[in-house]
Fold each of these.
Amino acid sequence: MLGPPPGGEVEGAAALVDAIIARDFAAVSALLSQAASASRLPSLLALRVDKASKQSLLHLALAPPGTCRRDIVFALTGSGIDVNARDRGGRSPLHLAVMGGLSDVAIHLAKECGARVDVCCKAGGGPAREATLTLDQEELEQPAAAGGEVLDTQIQVHLHTTATTPLHIACSSGLATAASAMLRFAKVDLKDKAGATPVSVAAAA
């Protein structure tokens, strides 16, 4: 159960969170328009869903991957939400996009929105810590949205044990188009916390 967003006194915050959870694009669009008209949009987009997860509204729109509505993601990014916000596990929205196999969303975030491709999420430090800082197994196993891909077991294990970047995840999971687009914004010898490069993780996949 989600808790009230920090700064919940911002008008429309609870309604926007509910609309994103319900994957109701019409409601999300209307609420963003209302907030923009009332000069409340920056405060609304800066909200975190709850203190425990530290997820932004964009994180909320992207997870779990099987329920992602691209139009809601694009509405949020088009409204100016921070695409580099990081949750408690150090994951950015771009991490979630590539973990969910959403190549087109990943390319949109990296190429059009300036999302960083070289930021590492946190590595697990034991079963309890990993459960907190990484996507739940149930989420990873959900079918991806149309056109998406589901990560296999080998990649899931890598994500649970390594502090890695969105680019490494894309290379590991065979998201060639997304990886190619992200390579325009990072060095080919970029290393994750385990010392692996995008090329080495692609070869091992």
Amino acid sequence: MIVDDHIAPNLINSSVWAKMFYFLYRIFVAKFLSNQTDIFIPVTESVKNVMTQVYGLSGTFRVIEHGADQKIFYPSKQLRQNFRFKHKIDAKEFVLAYTGKIMEEKKVHLLIEAFFELRRTYLDIKLFIVGFSDPHYIERLRNRCSVYQIDSSVIFADPVENSALGEVYNGVDLVVWPEGVTMSSLEAAMCGVPSVMRNLDDEIK
């Protein structure tokens, strides 16, 4: 059996209930799982530390870091044109984007707030949001855009497969992830697009 884990140290719940859960996990689950597992594959050294120190796992560990598919993520003027034509975005407009899970933990609402402030000064900008969403949360985001009267400048797109994100990254000018570091930034960078993220040392490592 192979076990993969990519939770970052800063995402570990530190509440009393969580500490009790991990304590019981180490007693009743960790030993069994360690004995039944051929290899554990953390994606960073910090994740390995979580697996050993928080989960209490032991055995063979092999760190395999994330990568990005060069056949999907690469700079392309054609993909940029395709994206902007599909979403009716003018070539001169500056587009910010968010990709990933749309839920409160990801703090996409902060991006909405920031975009609202930017719109006070810059009119030729748009915000593109794509990913699988919490229905209640995304409805709140839509309502907030309506209250701020920026709904015509914010595009909520249907979820797409990872293979389609190359077109998204080529089509936008800046990608923003308000909460934490994401490996999607590597995919965006391979398309030549800069990104803005919260600075979290543990995740960067």
Amino acid sequence: MDTNSLAGVLGVVSASATAIVLIAITNYVLASIGYMKIAKRREIKNAGLVWVPIARNWTIGAISDNYDEINGIKRRIKIFLVVFSVIKIAISIAAGSYIGMLMPYIIEYGLDLFTYDIGNTMLLIPVAFEVLGFAIACIIYKVCYVIALYKTFESTEIKKSLIFTILSTVLPFASGLFIFLSREKDSFSKNMVIEDRVEIENKEIQ
């Protein structure tokens, strides 16, 4: 490959990477504005956490839990979202540290390091458990996130909740736009919310 061709390829890659980053940032900002608006309108505490990575899962889950409580359902999606997002990061750090520790030997011996003898093959076991744990954590987190997303849309755009959830799952960069567009809407009345809160409180007292 000549210099001009290489420069062209690098230019395309750089432009694509820049576009992806800009789209991701825009999606994050739109989603944060939308979630914060919804959370504040429903008097959910610490709505501003939605701007903070990881912590934003608490607000996202709280919106879902709030809507479930109105419908007489008790869930703790916010706890699952926060816990499993932390677990994913913890496993990633652990796996990165372990692989980093092995890297000098991998560079020197290549993949032969793991086939040299049974003892070296055992070095792959921690990696396998970390990959499995990460996959399980990702699946649980994703399921909880989709539930929270659906509940948010159901509480704002009930007729479009399913299609918005599907599109947001298939096209993650579109979720922020849908949340932003739904930020001023409620599929239930303020009076209904107040009545349901009073009913829930009375049940708890009894």
